[in-house]
Task: inverse folding
């Protein structure tokens, strides 16, 4: 009986209001973030655009959304360190909820682009502020479990989005309306969440807070920050290019996948894998007591998924989806690398780092897209993606090797420019 009570107490100490709200916030964040990829074809087609325009405008719109997230990541990060983690959680969700409702009324690509940019700007603050709040609120030995729960619940939002897409059918506008309503409903739960005690303690000290330029004033700090970004590149190469444009890859002569491949199903299956991967990687980092070792093993699994994807020539759609599930599990180290980023920097710059790192990773998608397009000037679409995939695996492995191990690190410290 005493053992059962101890287990309940242990679980309760992890499932705090902050963890639950951060997890649900990330759930809505991922739902809205991936929704465009899911309804891309049907939404642009319903607006009267041709198949070629759907592909061209689709890439443009997802890049605009990511640019919005890149800018928003810096803004929300600075606000999080200057005004508090909760201010970001409230402000960001209001903006992206309203933007997604408005997106449901878009009737051309210009309106679509405006609201995707604003939604991206709002979405940029959710994950970083949530992870920072959880990391600072939980005991260091339980920190990994807390962020694992946030990621596990959060990424399942993509699976939910896939199900909602099927439920609404051709009514893609309804998918956007639902996302906005879910976000606004979440604001009620946020009232019960308290600010980080570590942040409150820092507020009483005379120290520079939320200065984004601090990350560039010291070579040591900048390199440390850059490594955090590079390690995460495979996650958005997989989602932003391989999964989002899987219907186009599947129809090429080199792959010629047997059976229909839809973007919505590809996102749903991929994120089912990512959901499982976030649980497994988070658990492994706790079991191994090492963030680095867990990420290393999952980077190797990501490489296996890439190989399966590119060797799918002539195989069934089921095999192709399976390759995306494996890739999804491999890229499920997302929460661990964001947690690692939070643990590497002091309280006065932590929210800025934890908010900008995931958004720089997401914001790297336009750069990867440009590289992909340039490679297609000399190679076909599949070979171009394969070349890019090799670099996307090798660079993170090198960056990870030089990354600091932060498992169990005390976070109650400040960052300086030395």
Result:
């Amino acid at each position: 009986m005493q053992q059962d009570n101890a287990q309940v107490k242990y679980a309760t100490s992890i499932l705090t209001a902050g963890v639950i709200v951060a997890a649900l916030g990330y759930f809505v964040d991922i739902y809205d973030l991936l929704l465009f990829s899911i309804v891309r074809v049907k939404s642009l087609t319903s607006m009267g655009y041709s198949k070629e325009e759907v592909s061209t405008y689709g890439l443009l719109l997802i890049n605009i959304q990511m640019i919005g997230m890149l800018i928003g990541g810096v803004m929300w990060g600075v606000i999080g360190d200057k005004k508090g983690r909760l201010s970001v959680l409230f402000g960001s969700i209001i903006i992206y909820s309203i933007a997604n409702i408005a997106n449901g009324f878009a009737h051309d690509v210009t309106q679509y682009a405006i609201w995707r940019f604003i939604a991206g700007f709002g979405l940029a603050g959710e994950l970083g502020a949530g992870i920072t709040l959880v990391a600072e609120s939980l005991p260091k030995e339980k920190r990994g479990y807390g962020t694992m729960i946030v990621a596990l619940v959060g990424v399942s939002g993509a699976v939910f989005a896939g199900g909602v897409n099927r439920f609404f059918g051709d009514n893609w506008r309804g998918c956007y309306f639902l996302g906005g309503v879910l976000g606004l409903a979440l604001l009620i739960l946020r009232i019960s969440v308290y600010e980080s005690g570590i942040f409150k303690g820092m507020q009483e000290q005379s120290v520079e807070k939320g200065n984004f330029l601090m990350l560039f004033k010291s070579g040591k700090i900048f390199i440390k920050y850059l490594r955090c970004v590079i390690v995460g590149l495979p996650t958005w190469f997989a989602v932003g290019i391989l999964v989002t444009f899987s219907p186009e890859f599947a129809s090429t002569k080199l792959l010629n996948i047997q059976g229909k491949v839809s973007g919505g199903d590809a996102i749903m299956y991929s994120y089912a894998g990512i959901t499982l991967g976030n649980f497994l990687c988070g658990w492994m980092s706790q079991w191994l007591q090492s963030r680095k070792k867990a990420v290393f093993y999952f980077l190797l699994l990501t490489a296996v998924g890439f190989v399966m994807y590119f060797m799918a020539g002539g195989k069934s759609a089921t095999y192709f989806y399976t390759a995306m599930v494996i890739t999804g599990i491999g890229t499920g180290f997302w929460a661990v690398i964001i947690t690692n980023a939070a643990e590497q920097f002091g309280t006065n710059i932590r929210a800025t780092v934890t908010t900008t790192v995931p958004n720089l990773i997401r914001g790297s998608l336009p750069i990867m897209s440009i590289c992909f397009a340039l490679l297609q000037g000399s190679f076909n679409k599949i070979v171009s993606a394969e070349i890019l995939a090799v670099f996307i695996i090798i660079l993170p492995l090198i960056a990870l090797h030089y990354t600091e191990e932060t498992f169990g690190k005390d976070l109650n410290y400040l960052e300086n420019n030395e």
